[in-house]
Design a protein that fits this description.
33% of the residues lie in helices and 31% in strands. It is built from two helices and six strands; from the N terminus they run βαββαβββ.
Length: 102
């Protein structure tokens, strides 16, 4: 049984196409792009969160609402710059658990 109001999550493993960037800068840039794309209300319903980012491997994990997975994948495909750096996040895999991404 699902708790009332609990978030049904999906995790998306992604890789940045170009240069490495700091986690804070990536987080700010992704949220700014998401705000432009979804708007305030849409972003709150998508429940987007950067869970982790490995600067060395250039890979990260995003969490979102299960029902919004297709929207988030579309959003990631349309990004060309993050915080004025020319890079594209490429979605590699999605799963209901972080362990499932490994």
């Amino acid at each position: 049984m699902v708790k009332a109001g609990s978030l049904r999550k999906r995790y998306v493993l992604f890789k940045l196409s170009e240069p490495q960037m700091e986690e804070d800068r990536l987080k700010r840039g992704l949220y700014a792009q998401a705000l432009k794309f979804f708007g305030e209300y849409g972003l709150s319903s998508v429940a987007l969160k950067l869970v982790s980012y490995d600067k060395v491997k250039n890979k990260g994990i995003l969490r979102c609402e299960r029902e919004a997975l297709e929207k988030v994948l579309g959003f990631l495909a349309l990004i060309e710059t993050i915080d004025n750096i020319q890079t594209r996040p490429i979605a590699l895999k999605s799963s209901g658990t972080i362990k499932g991404l490994g």
